[in-house]
Design goal:
binds 2-acetamido-2-deoxy-beta-D-glucopyranose; globular; alpha+beta; about 20% helix; 7-stranded mixed β-sheet; 2 domains; aspartic-type endopeptidase activity; Aspartic_peptidase_A1; Pepsin-like_dom; about 35% strand; signal; Cathepsin D, subunit A, domain 1; aspartyl protease
Length: about 425
Protein backbone atom coordinates (compact mmCIF):
# COMPACT_ATOMS: atom_id res chain seq x y z
CA UNK A 1 0.00 0.00 0.00
CA UNK A 2 2.67 2.42 1.06
CA UNK A 3 4.84 1.27 -1.79
CA UNK A 4 1.93 1.59 -4.18
CA UNK A 5 1.29 5.15 -3.00
CA UNK A 6 4.93 5.94 -3.30
CA UNK A 7 5.07 4.59 -6.85
CA UNK A 8 1.94 6.45 -7.77
CA UNK A 9 3.34 9.63 -6.32
CA UNK A 10 6.59 9.12 -8.18
CA UNK A 11 4.68 8.55 -11.39
CA UNK A 12 2.61 11.68 -10.87
CA UNK A 13 5.73 13.69 -10.19
CA UNK A 14 7.49 12.23 -13.22
CA UNK A 15 4.52 13.07 -15.41
CA UNK A 16 4.39 16.56 -14.02
CA UNK A 17 8.04 17.08 -14.80
CA UNK A 18 7.83 15.47 -18.23
CA UNK A 19 4.71 17.35 -19.22
CA UNK A 20 5.07 20.02 -21.84
CA UNK A 21 5.14 23.50 -20.36
CA UNK A 22 2.33 24.28 -22.77
CA UNK A 23 -0.95 24.46 -20.90
CA UNK A 24 -4.47 24.07 -22.20
CA UNK A 25 -7.17 25.05 -19.78
CA UNK A 26 -10.61 26.58 -20.06
CA UNK A 27 -10.43 26.77 -23.84
CA UNK A 28 -7.15 28.50 -23.95
CA UNK A 29 -3.65 27.60 -25.04
CA UNK A 30 -0.56 28.98 -23.43
CA UNK A 31 2.82 28.81 -25.13
CA UNK A 32 6.10 29.72 -23.48
CA UNK A 33 7.74 32.64 -25.19
CA UNK A 34 11.44 33.50 -25.09
CA UNK A 35 13.02 36.90 -25.50
CA UNK A 36 16.11 36.82 -27.65
CA UNK A 37 18.68 39.44 -28.28
CA UNK A 38 20.18 38.89 -31.70
CA UNK A 39 23.89 38.85 -32.20
CA UNK A 40 23.51 41.39 -35.00
CA UNK A 41 21.76 44.64 -34.33
CA UNK A 42 21.54 44.57 -30.57
CA UNK A 43 23.58 47.73 -30.39
CA UNK A 44 21.03 49.25 -32.68
CA UNK A 45 17.90 48.84 -30.62
CA UNK A 46 16.90 52.46 -31.13
CA UNK A 47 17.61 52.40 -34.85
CA UNK A 48 15.59 49.21 -35.31
CA UNK A 49 12.69 50.66 -33.32
CA UNK A 50 12.70 53.88 -35.33
CA UNK A 51 12.83 52.05 -38.66
CA UNK A 52 9.85 50.01 -37.62
CA UNK A 53 8.01 53.10 -36.33
CA UNK A 54 8.53 54.95 -39.62
CA UNK A 55 7.13 52.02 -41.59
CA UNK A 56 4.14 51.60 -39.32
CA UNK A 57 3.46 55.35 -39.47
CA UNK A 58 3.28 55.13 -43.25
CA UNK A 59 0.43 52.68 -42.88
CA UNK A 60 -0.12 49.63 -45.02
CA UNK A 61 -1.43 51.38 -48.12
CA UNK A 62 1.05 54.22 -48.16
CA UNK A 63 3.93 51.86 -47.74
CA UNK A 64 2.70 49.49 -50.40
CA UNK A 65 2.42 52.42 -52.79
CA UNK A 66 5.86 53.75 -51.98
CA UNK A 67 7.22 50.29 -52.32
CA UNK A 68 5.58 49.93 -55.72
CA UNK A 69 6.93 53.22 -56.99
CA UNK A 70 10.42 52.50 -55.86
CA UNK A 71 10.53 49.09 -57.42
CA UNK A 72 8.57 50.31 -60.45
CA UNK A 73 11.32 52.58 -61.70
CA UNK A 74 13.87 50.18 -60.38
CA UNK A 75 15.90 52.97 -58.82
CA UNK A 76 17.59 52.80 -55.48
CA UNK A 77 15.35 55.33 -53.80
CA UNK A 78 16.12 55.09 -50.15
CA UNK A 79 12.73 56.38 -49.13
CA UNK A 80 12.12 53.49 -46.78
CA UNK A 81 13.99 50.52 -45.51
CA UNK A 82 11.32 48.47 -47.22
CA UNK A 83 12.36 49.39 -50.70
CA UNK A 84 15.96 48.57 -50.02
CA UNK A 85 15.05 45.33 -48.29
CA UNK A 86 12.88 44.34 -51.22
CA UNK A 87 15.56 45.37 -53.66
CA UNK A 88 18.15 43.41 -51.71
CA UNK A 89 16.03 40.30 -51.80
CA UNK A 90 15.06 40.88 -55.41
CA UNK A 91 11.39 40.58 -54.63
CA UNK A 92 8.61 41.78 -56.84
CA UNK A 93 6.63 44.87 -56.07
CA UNK A 94 3.39 43.52 -54.71
CA UNK A 95 2.53 42.68 -51.17
CA UNK A 96 1.85 44.07 -47.82
CA UNK A 97 4.22 46.03 -45.69
CA UNK A 98 4.77 45.34 -42.08
CA UNK A 99 7.75 45.68 -39.89
CA UNK A 100 9.77 43.42 -37.73
CA UNK A 101 12.36 44.42 -35.23
CA UNK A 102 15.36 42.17 -35.52
CA UNK A 103 17.28 43.78 -32.68
CA UNK A 104 15.38 41.96 -30.00
CA UNK A 105 12.36 39.78 -30.37
CA UNK A 106 10.06 37.24 -28.83
CA UNK A 107 9.88 33.72 -30.22
CA UNK A 108 7.49 30.77 -29.83
CA UNK A 109 7.63 27.20 -31.16
CA UNK A 110 4.86 26.06 -33.47
CA UNK A 111 4.44 22.70 -35.29
CA UNK A 112 3.48 22.51 -38.95
CA UNK A 113 2.48 19.35 -40.87
CA UNK A 114 1.91 15.75 -39.77
CA UNK A 115 4.16 14.60 -38.25
CA UNK A 116 4.83 18.21 -37.30
CA UNK A 117 8.08 19.99 -37.90
CA UNK A 118 8.77 22.51 -35.16
CA UNK A 119 9.58 26.06 -36.20
CA UNK A 120 10.70 28.97 -34.04
CA UNK A 121 8.61 31.95 -35.04
CA UNK A 122 8.77 35.62 -34.13
CA UNK A 123 5.62 36.82 -32.42
CA UNK A 124 4.48 39.94 -34.26
CA UNK A 125 1.43 42.03 -33.42
CA UNK A 126 2.27 44.37 -36.32
CA UNK A 127 1.72 41.84 -39.11
CA UNK A 128 -0.71 38.99 -39.62
CA UNK A 129 0.75 36.40 -41.99
CA UNK A 130 2.26 33.21 -40.63
CA UNK A 131 5.11 31.71 -42.58
CA UNK A 132 8.15 29.48 -42.26
CA UNK A 133 11.29 28.75 -44.22
CA UNK A 134 13.62 31.60 -43.28
CA UNK A 135 16.17 29.34 -41.60
CA UNK A 136 14.69 25.87 -41.62
CA UNK A 137 12.92 25.05 -44.91
CA UNK A 138 9.24 24.16 -44.98
CA UNK A 139 8.85 20.39 -44.73
CA UNK A 140 5.82 19.20 -46.69
CA UNK A 141 3.85 16.26 -45.37
CA UNK A 142 0.55 14.61 -46.32
CA UNK A 143 -1.35 17.50 -44.73
CA UNK A 144 0.39 20.17 -46.83
CA UNK A 145 -1.69 21.56 -49.69
CA UNK A 146 -0.30 24.06 -52.15
CA UNK A 147 -2.82 26.78 -52.96
CA UNK A 148 -0.98 27.74 -56.14
CA UNK A 149 -0.75 31.32 -54.93
CA UNK A 150 2.25 33.46 -54.28
CA UNK A 151 2.68 35.19 -50.96
CA UNK A 152 4.81 38.19 -50.27
CA UNK A 153 5.26 40.46 -47.28
CA UNK A 154 7.84 43.20 -46.81
CA UNK A 155 8.98 44.08 -43.30
CA UNK A 156 11.05 46.93 -41.93
CA UNK A 157 14.18 44.87 -41.71
CA UNK A 158 13.46 42.27 -44.34
CA UNK A 159 11.05 40.63 -46.71
CA UNK A 160 9.96 37.22 -47.81
CA UNK A 161 8.42 35.82 -50.93
CA UNK A 162 7.13 32.30 -51.34
CA UNK A 163 4.27 29.97 -52.00
CA UNK A 164 1.12 29.80 -49.97
CA UNK A 165 0.04 26.45 -48.55
CA UNK A 166 -2.61 25.31 -46.17
CA UNK A 167 -1.47 22.88 -43.53
CA UNK A 168 -2.10 21.49 -40.13
CA UNK A 169 -0.62 23.65 -37.40
CA UNK A 170 0.05 22.44 -33.89
CA UNK A 171 -0.08 25.10 -31.22
CA UNK A 172 0.74 23.62 -27.89
CA UNK A 173 -1.11 20.31 -27.73
CA UNK A 174 -3.87 21.35 -30.08
CA UNK A 175 -4.04 21.17 -33.82
CA UNK A 176 -5.77 23.40 -36.31
CA UNK A 177 -6.43 22.30 -39.86
CA UNK A 178 -6.27 24.26 -43.06
CA UNK A 179 -4.13 27.07 -41.70
CA UNK A 180 -2.62 29.32 -44.35
CA UNK A 181 1.14 29.06 -44.18
CA UNK A 182 3.66 30.82 -46.33
CA UNK A 183 6.64 28.77 -47.44
CA UNK A 184 9.47 31.19 -48.09
CA UNK A 185 11.46 30.64 -51.24
CA UNK A 186 13.42 33.79 -50.47
CA UNK A 187 13.69 35.51 -47.11
CA UNK A 188 15.91 38.39 -46.18
CA UNK A 189 16.62 39.70 -42.70
CA UNK A 190 15.48 36.86 -40.43
CA UNK A 191 18.59 35.61 -38.77
CA UNK A 192 18.14 32.70 -36.41
CA UNK A 193 14.38 32.30 -36.72
CA UNK A 194 12.24 30.25 -39.08
CA UNK A 195 9.58 32.84 -39.79
CA UNK A 196 6.78 34.79 -38.18
CA UNK A 197 3.51 34.09 -36.44
CA UNK A 198 1.51 37.21 -37.23
CA UNK A 199 -1.07 38.08 -34.57
CA UNK A 200 -1.99 41.54 -35.84
CA UNK A 201 -5.45 42.46 -37.14
CA UNK A 202 -6.52 40.11 -39.96
CA UNK A 203 -6.99 42.83 -42.57
CA UNK A 204 -3.24 43.43 -42.61
CA UNK A 205 -3.14 40.28 -44.76
CA UNK A 206 -5.06 41.92 -47.61
CA UNK A 207 -2.80 42.12 -50.65
CA UNK A 208 -0.27 39.59 -49.40
CA UNK A 209 -1.53 36.41 -51.04
CA UNK A 210 -2.40 36.20 -54.72
CA UNK A 211 -1.08 39.62 -55.66
CA UNK A 212 -1.20 43.09 -54.20
CA UNK A 213 -4.62 43.83 -55.66
CA UNK A 214 -6.17 40.77 -54.11
CA UNK A 215 -8.77 41.66 -51.52
CA UNK A 216 -8.58 38.25 -49.87
CA UNK A 217 -8.11 38.20 -46.12
CA UNK A 218 -6.04 35.33 -44.82
CA UNK A 219 -7.30 34.04 -41.47
CA UNK A 220 -4.64 34.21 -38.77
CA UNK A 221 -3.76 31.37 -36.44
CA UNK A 222 -5.93 33.02 -33.78
CA UNK A 223 -8.87 33.28 -36.23
CA UNK A 224 -8.64 29.56 -37.05
CA UNK A 225 -8.25 28.48 -33.43
CA UNK A 226 -11.47 30.38 -32.80
CA UNK A 227 -13.46 29.33 -35.89
CA UNK A 228 -12.51 25.69 -35.29
CA UNK A 229 -13.81 25.89 -31.73
CA UNK A 230 -10.44 25.29 -30.12
CA UNK A 231 -10.48 28.55 -28.19
CA UNK A 232 -13.57 30.22 -26.80
CA UNK A 233 -12.79 33.81 -27.78
CA UNK A 234 -10.96 35.34 -30.70
CA UNK A 235 -8.25 36.99 -28.69
CA UNK A 236 -4.65 36.56 -27.77
CA UNK A 237 -2.85 37.78 -24.69
CA UNK A 238 0.79 38.42 -24.08
CA UNK A 239 2.67 38.25 -20.82
CA UNK A 240 6.32 39.20 -20.43
CA UNK A 241 8.41 39.56 -17.32
CA UNK A 242 11.31 42.01 -17.35
CA UNK A 243 14.30 40.04 -18.68
CA UNK A 244 17.27 39.19 -16.53
CA UNK A 245 19.48 37.82 -19.33
CA UNK A 246 19.85 38.16 -23.09
CA UNK A 247 17.90 35.05 -24.01
CA UNK A 248 15.28 34.72 -21.36
CA UNK A 249 12.19 32.48 -21.37
CA UNK A 250 10.24 35.16 -19.62
CA UNK A 251 7.06 35.29 -21.67
CA UNK A 252 3.80 33.57 -22.43
CA UNK A 253 1.52 33.81 -25.42
CA UNK A 254 -2.03 32.73 -24.62
CA UNK A 255 -4.71 32.16 -27.22
CA UNK A 256 -8.37 32.47 -26.25
CA UNK A 257 -8.08 33.91 -22.80
CA UNK A 258 -5.82 35.41 -20.17
CA UNK A 259 -3.65 33.35 -17.86
CA UNK A 260 -5.18 34.52 -14.57
CA UNK A 261 -2.15 33.28 -12.66
CA UNK A 262 -0.16 36.09 -14.27
CA UNK A 263 -2.37 39.04 -13.44
CA UNK A 264 -3.03 41.14 -10.37
CA UNK A 265 -6.56 42.54 -10.40
CA UNK A 266 -8.66 42.68 -13.56
CA UNK A 267 -8.03 43.34 -17.21
CA UNK A 268 -9.30 46.80 -18.23
CA UNK A 269 -10.17 47.22 -21.89
CA UNK A 270 -10.08 50.21 -24.19
CA UNK A 271 -11.66 50.37 -27.67
CA UNK A 272 -9.37 50.35 -30.69
CA UNK A 273 -8.66 53.85 -31.96
CA UNK A 274 -10.38 55.13 -35.09
CA UNK A 275 -7.39 57.31 -35.99
CA UNK A 276 -5.36 56.14 -38.96
CA UNK A 277 -2.77 54.73 -39.39
CA UNK A 278 -2.76 53.51 -35.76
CA UNK A 279 -6.18 51.97 -36.49
CA UNK A 280 -4.58 49.54 -38.97
CA UNK A 281 -2.71 47.87 -36.09
CA UNK A 282 -3.51 47.34 -32.42
CA UNK A 283 -4.09 51.07 -32.03
CA UNK A 284 -5.36 52.87 -28.93
CA UNK A 285 -5.72 56.43 -27.65
CA UNK A 286 -3.68 57.52 -24.64
CA UNK A 287 -2.17 60.52 -22.89
CA UNK A 288 1.02 60.51 -20.84
CA UNK A 289 1.81 62.49 -17.71
CA UNK A 290 4.86 62.60 -15.46
CA UNK A 291 5.25 62.59 -11.73
CA UNK A 292 3.23 63.86 -8.79
CA UNK A 293 2.91 67.26 -10.49
CA UNK A 294 1.04 65.47 -13.31
CA UNK A 295 3.12 67.28 -15.93
CA UNK A 296 1.71 66.71 -19.41
CA UNK A 297 4.11 64.77 -21.60
CA UNK A 298 1.75 63.79 -24.41
CA UNK A 299 -1.82 65.03 -24.93
CA UNK A 300 -4.39 62.38 -25.81
CA UNK A 301 -3.51 60.95 -29.20
CA UNK A 302 -3.44 57.69 -31.15
CA UNK A 303 -0.63 55.16 -31.19
CA UNK A 304 -0.11 51.44 -30.97
CA UNK A 305 0.72 48.57 -28.67
CA UNK A 306 3.43 46.48 -30.26
CA UNK A 307 5.42 43.34 -29.47
CA UNK A 308 7.87 44.19 -32.27
CA UNK A 309 9.23 47.34 -30.63
CA UNK A 310 11.64 47.20 -27.72
CA UNK A 311 11.33 50.71 -26.29
CA UNK A 312 8.51 53.13 -25.50
CA UNK A 313 8.55 55.61 -28.35
CA UNK A 314 6.69 58.91 -28.30
CA UNK A 315 6.35 61.98 -30.52
CA UNK A 316 9.35 64.33 -30.52
CA UNK A 317 7.49 67.03 -28.55
CA UNK A 318 6.56 64.46 -25.88
CA UNK A 319 10.08 63.09 -25.80
CA UNK A 320 11.45 66.59 -25.25
CA UNK A 321 8.95 67.22 -22.45
CA UNK A 322 10.02 63.95 -20.83
CA UNK A 323 13.68 64.83 -21.17
CA UNK A 324 13.03 68.22 -19.57
CA UNK A 325 10.99 66.72 -16.73
CA UNK A 326 13.61 64.09 -15.92
CA UNK A 327 16.85 65.94 -16.66
CA UNK A 328 18.02 63.02 -18.80
CA UNK A 329 20.67 63.51 -21.47
CA UNK A 330 21.35 61.58 -24.63
CA UNK A 331 24.04 58.90 -24.50
CA UNK A 332 26.03 58.97 -27.71
CA UNK A 333 26.93 55.30 -27.79
CA UNK A 334 23.48 53.79 -27.41
CA UNK A 335 21.33 56.73 -28.50
CA UNK A 336 19.26 56.19 -25.38
CA UNK A 337 18.64 58.74 -22.66
CA UNK A 338 20.84 58.37 -19.61
CA UNK A 339 20.61 59.62 -16.03
CA UNK A 340 23.11 60.01 -13.22
CA UNK A 341 22.43 57.86 -10.18
CA UNK A 342 21.30 60.96 -8.28
CA UNK A 343 18.84 61.92 -10.99
CA UNK A 344 17.62 58.34 -11.06
CA UNK A 345 16.90 58.55 -7.34
CA UNK A 346 14.67 61.53 -8.15
CA UNK A 347 13.01 59.95 -11.17
CA UNK A 348 9.24 59.91 -10.74
CA UNK A 349 6.66 57.63 -12.30
CA UNK A 350 5.37 58.05 -15.82
CA UNK A 351 1.60 57.58 -16.18
CA UNK A 352 -0.08 56.22 -19.29
CA UNK A 353 -3.76 57.23 -19.23
CA UNK A 354 -5.68 54.75 -21.33
CA UNK A 355 -9.44 54.24 -21.40
CA UNK A 356 -9.95 55.99 -18.07
CA UNK A 357 -7.26 53.94 -16.33
CA UNK A 358 -3.80 55.07 -15.34
CA UNK A 359 -0.89 52.69 -15.97
CA UNK A 360 2.16 53.61 -13.99
CA UNK A 361 5.70 52.97 -15.15
CA UNK A 362 7.75 53.31 -11.99
CA UNK A 363 11.29 54.69 -12.12
CA UNK A 364 12.62 51.14 -12.33
CA UNK A 365 10.24 50.34 -15.18
CA UNK A 366 11.56 53.34 -17.13
CA UNK A 367 15.11 52.01 -17.24
CA UNK A 368 16.58 49.54 -19.67
CA UNK A 369 17.31 46.24 -17.88
CA UNK A 370 20.81 46.78 -16.52
CA UNK A 371 21.60 43.09 -17.02
CA UNK A 372 21.33 43.76 -20.77
CA UNK A 373 23.31 46.99 -20.93
CA UNK A 374 26.33 45.37 -22.55
CA UNK A 375 24.13 44.08 -25.40
CA UNK A 376 23.30 47.61 -26.44
CA UNK A 377 26.88 48.79 -26.13
CA UNK A 378 26.28 50.43 -22.76
CA UNK A 379 28.19 50.37 -19.48
CA UNK A 380 26.96 47.72 -17.10
CA UNK A 381 26.25 50.07 -14.20
CA UNK A 382 24.86 53.03 -16.14
CA UNK A 383 21.19 54.01 -16.18
CA UNK A 384 19.60 54.09 -19.65
CA UNK A 385 15.96 54.99 -20.18
CA UNK A 386 13.49 53.09 -22.35
CA UNK A 387 11.60 56.22 -23.40
CA UNK A 388 12.71 57.57 -26.74
CA UNK A 389 11.73 59.71 -29.71
CA UNK A 390 9.53 58.26 -32.43
CA UNK A 391 11.12 60.79 -34.79
CA UNK A 392 8.09 62.96 -35.68
CA UNK A 393 5.94 65.57 -33.93
CA UNK A 394 2.45 64.71 -32.62
CA UNK A 395 -0.32 64.57 -35.17
CA UNK A 396 0.81 61.69 -37.38
CA UNK A 397 -2.04 59.40 -36.36
CA UNK A 398 0.55 57.16 -34.75
CA UNK A 399 2.31 59.18 -32.08
CA UNK A 400 3.51 56.53 -29.66
CA UNK A 401 4.43 52.89 -29.52
CA UNK A 402 4.06 51.02 -26.26
CA UNK A 403 6.71 48.41 -26.98
CA UNK A 404 7.78 45.51 -24.84
CA UNK A 405 9.40 47.73 -22.21
CA UNK A 406 5.79 48.66 -21.39
CA UNK A 407 4.42 45.16 -22.00
CA UNK A 408 6.93 43.69 -19.55
CA UNK A 409 5.03 45.59 -16.83
CA UNK A 410 1.43 45.05 -17.96
CA UNK A 411 -0.09 41.94 -19.48
CA UNK A 412 -1.79 42.88 -22.75
CA UNK A 413 -4.85 41.44 -24.47
CA UNK A 414 -5.57 41.78 -28.20
CA UNK A 415 -9.28 41.15 -28.65
CA UNK A 416 -10.54 40.74 -32.21
CA UNK A 417 -14.10 39.82 -31.20
CA UNK A 418 -14.71 43.08 -29.37
CA UNK A 419 -12.23 45.36 -31.18
CA UNK A 420 -10.40 46.28 -28.03
CA UNK A 421 -7.07 46.09 -26.29
CA UNK A 422 -6.78 45.30 -22.59
CA UNK A 423 -4.14 45.63 -19.91
CA UNK A 424 -3.71 44.14 -16.47
CA UNK A 425 -1.11 44.63 -13.77
CA UNK A 426 1.18 41.70 -13.01
CA UNK A 427 3.51 40.80 -10.17
CA UNK A 428 6.21 42.60 -12.19
CA UNK A 429 4.35 45.91 -12.57
CA UNK A 430 6.20 47.45 -9.63
CA UNK A 431 9.18 45.10 -9.58
CA UNK A 432 12.66 46.53 -9.23
CA UNK A 433 14.10 43.85 -11.54
CA UNK A 434 15.81 46.37 -13.80
C1 LIG B 1 20.81 55.13 -51.37
O1 LIG B 1 21.70 54.51 -50.47
C2 LIG B 1 22.88 54.09 -51.11
C3 LIG B 1 23.67 53.28 -50.09
O2 LIG B 1 23.53 53.79 -48.80
C4 LIG B 1 23.63 55.31 -51.63
O3 LIG B 1 24.82 54.89 -52.29
C5 LIG B 1 22.73 56.05 -52.61
O4 LIG B 1 23.35 57.24 -53.03
C6 LIG B 1 21.40 56.38 -51.97
N1 LIG B 1 20.50 56.89 -52.98
C7 LIG B 1 19.72 57.94 -52.78
C8 LIG B 1 18.82 58.30 -53.90
O5 LIG B 1 19.73 58.56 -51.73
C1 LIG C 1 20.42 34.34 -28.16
O1 LIG C 1 19.87 33.37 -29.04
C2 LIG C 1 20.15 33.62 -30.40
C3 LIG C 1 19.41 32.61 -31.23
O2 LIG C 1 19.40 31.35 -30.66
C4 LIG C 1 21.65 33.55 -30.63
O3 LIG C 1 21.94 33.84 -31.97
C5 LIG C 1 22.32 34.60 -29.74
O4 LIG C 1 23.72 34.49 -29.87
C6 LIG C 1 21.95 34.39 -28.28
N1 LIG C 1 22.50 35.50 -27.52
C7 LIG C 1 23.18 35.32 -26.41
C8 LIG C 1 23.74 36.55 -25.79
O5 LIG C 1 23.36 34.23 -25.92
C1 LIG D 1 -3.33 63.94 -14.78
O1 LIG D 1 -3.74 64.61 -15.96
C2 LIG D 1 -4.47 63.81 -16.85
C3 LIG D 1 -4.78 64.61 -18.08
O2 LIG D 1 -3.96 65.70 -18.23
C4 LIG D 1 -5.74 63.30 -16.20
O3 LIG D 1 -6.40 62.44 -17.08
C5 LIG D 1 -5.37 62.56 -14.95
O4 LIG D 1 -6.54 62.17 -14.26
C6 LIG D 1 -4.52 63.42 -14.03
N1 LIG D 1 -4.08 62.61 -12.92
C7 LIG D 1 -4.07 63.06 -11.68
C8 LIG D 1 -3.54 62.10 -10.65
O5 LIG D 1 -4.42 64.19 -11.38
C1 LIG E 1 2.05 49.30 -7.75
O1 LIG E 1 2.22 50.42 -6.91
C2 LIG E 1 1.13 51.34 -6.89
C3 LIG E 1 1.45 52.52 -6.02
O2 LIG E 1 2.78 52.78 -5.94
C4 LIG E 1 -0.12 50.66 -6.40
O3 LIG E 1 -1.20 51.54 -6.47
C5 LIG E 1 -0.40 49.44 -7.25
O4 LIG E 1 -1.49 48.73 -6.70
C6 LIG E 1 0.81 48.53 -7.33
N1 LIG E 1 0.50 47.49 -8.29
C7 LIG E 1 0.81 46.22 -8.11
C8 LIG E 1 0.37 45.28 -9.16
O5 LIG E 1 1.42 45.83 -7.14
Amino acid sequence: MALHSFLLMTLVLALAVAASPVRVRNNRITLPMARRANSLGVRKVLEADRTRAALLQGGRKALTKRHRQSTGNNAATNSTATSSAAAASGTASNGNVAAVNQGEDYVVSVGVGSPPTTYNLLVDTGSSNTWVGASQAYVQTSTSKATGQQVEVSYGSGAFVGEEFTDQVTVGELTITGQSIGSATEAEGFEGVDGIIGIGPTDLTVGTVGGEDSQTEVPTVTDNLFSQGIIGENLVSVFFAPPTSANDSNGELTFGSVDDSKIVGDVAFTPLTTTSPASEYWGIDQSITYGSSNTTILDTTAGIVDTGTTLVLMATNAFQAYQQATGATEDETTGLLTLSNTDFDNLESLFFNIGGQSYELTANAQIFPRALNSLIGGNSDQIYLVVNDIGTESGQGLDFINGFSFLERYLSVFDTTNNQVGFAATQFTNATTN
